[in-house]
Amino acid sequence: MITIVIPLFNGEKYISRAIQSSIDQKHVSQIIIIDDKSTDKSVEVVHKCIETTTEKEILLLSNEHNQGPGFSRNKGIQQATGKYIAFLDADDYYIHQRFERSVELLEKTKENDGVYSPLELKLEEGINTFAQEDYRLIKADGEHISFEDMLLRSRGIVSHCGILFRRRFLEQYNIRYADAYWGEDTEMLFNAIQKGKIVYLDDPKTIRSITGHNLTTNLDLNEQYAFHKKWFNNMLQENYSKPVNYYFLKNLIRKHPVFHNRHTPIYRLPKFMWLMAKIITTPKLWSKLL
Predict the structure, then answer these.
(1) How many CB atoms lie within 10 A of CB 110?
(2) Which of 72, 74, 247, 14 is nearest to 152 (CA)?
(3) Helices 15-23 and 42-51 sit at what angle, rounded to 10 degrees?
(4) pTM
(5) Do 178 and 188 meet the contact criterion of CB atoms below 8 Å apart?
(6) Nearest one of 190, 192, 159, 187 to 175, comparing CA atoms
(7) What is Dmax (Cα atoms) for the chain?
(8) Lowest mean pLDDT: which of 42-46, 122-126, 185-189, 267-271?
(9) Burial of 199: CB neighbours in 10 Å, binned 0-12, 13-18, 19+
(10) Does residue 223 carry a pLDDT above 90?
(11) Cα 67 off chain centre by
């Protein structure tokens, strides 16, 4: 019934835990692991899991070269056969009865395209990037999560690893991850939440492990800016609400490379001034903000 898609890169310490936690879920029928050219013993660990598992289908795919988690997840979507799809990172895992209530809600209410449940955090000592409450939204069970909810939240992060999607929905609207090493999951969620009906369910049974090796804790600042620039340009073409337009403009400015360092080198200023001039002289932008 459920396909779990797990991108894998140098996760030999954690991948068996992720796989076993998926095997232990009653509704899971297929587990797809996509190795992104790991250089450790990750693939050997996966092969051992496959050899000792008979009750679930475990499929190991391999990329020809390292292409990032977005590319890997898209490859998993193409091979998925389950009615529903969930995404799990190699260092994360599920606890008992992760999908029971989510499946019940999707089976009961056919117009729902996905169910988001908040994540539980397991923080490595010294890591304080996120707080436990960050992943909980102020929503009632079964309540729709809007695009504005995701962007303009005062509290709460929507994570792609907390959503159980209908596979039919992902295929119908060609919902895929961006081909990038950062922001690929956020872009996928932007598209999914705009095109479908994702509802909230306060049933946190996905454990997110935050370590010093997560991509999220080692953000590339230039990739962050490229992401916000892309969505700023998209905003100019779409009919978003004014608060959303302000959000994209604010983040484009905040993520500009001129702000990367406290003491800004003079050579960066002309590029920033060019950005300001472009914003000021964009009539389409002001027509959306005023």
Answers:
(1) 8
(2) 247
(3) 30
(4) 0.87
(5) yes
(6) 192
(7) 63
(8) 122-126
(9) buried
(10) no
(11) 16
CA dist 279 and 205 (Å) reads 43
Q: Which two tokens stand for residue 290?
A: 């005023």
For 210, the token pair is 């935050």
Question: How buried is residue 130: exposed, middle or buried, by Cβ count under 10 Å (0-12/13-18/19+)?
Answer: middle
Do 163 and 198 touch, CB atoms closer than 8 A?
Answer: yes
| Amino acid at position 102, single letter | S
What count of other Cβ atoms lies within 10 Å of the Cβ of residue 145?
23
Closest Cα partner for 175 from 38, 5, 36? 5
The strand order across the sheet containing 206-210 reads 93-94, 206-210, 119-123
- Summarize the confidence of residues 231-256 as an average pLDDT: 89
Which residue bears the tokens 């914003």?
Answer: 279
What are the tens digits of pLDDT across the range 49-73? 999 998 899 999 999 999 999 999 9
111-160, pLDDT tens digit by residue?
999 999 999 988 665 555 666 678 889 899 999 999 998 888 766 789 99
